[in-house]
């Protein structure tokens, strides 16, 4: 499900001028890495879900908050596994 949603979310963020104000905004995007992982695992890339978001500053902030939480959670889990 992550691979169905992340490209839509990040694609939307790229068109938001508010996202451009986030420090290192483009470096935070993970869609390309996700697609490489799926390819390396020889898994199909699922179709992107159709999603809509409000185009305002609080939507960008909320989505970035969730994505960064996902990144930090993954880093924590990797640290537990010694990776």
Properties at a glance:
83 residues, 57% helix, mainly alpha
Outline the structure in words.
- With 83 residues, this protein is mostly helical.
- It has three helices and no strands.
- The mean pLDDT is 84.
- The chain has one domain (2-80).
Fold blueprint:
Layout: H1 2-14, H2 31-40, H3 57-80
Question: Summarize this, please?
Answer:
With 83 residues, this protein is mainly α. Helix content is 57%, strand content 0%.
Number of domains: 1
**Major sheet: size, sense and barrel closure?**
none
Summarize the amount of helix as a percent range. 55-70%
Q: Compute the separation of the termini in Å.
A: 24 Å
Radius of gyration: 14 Å
What would the principal axes of the Cα set say about the shape? globular
Question: Order of SSEs, N→C?
Answer: HHH
* Low-pLDDT ranges: none
**How much of the residues is beta strand, in percent?**
under 5%
Number of helices: 3
**Number of E-type strands:** 0
Q: What is the structural class?
A: mainly alpha
What's the average pLDDT?
84
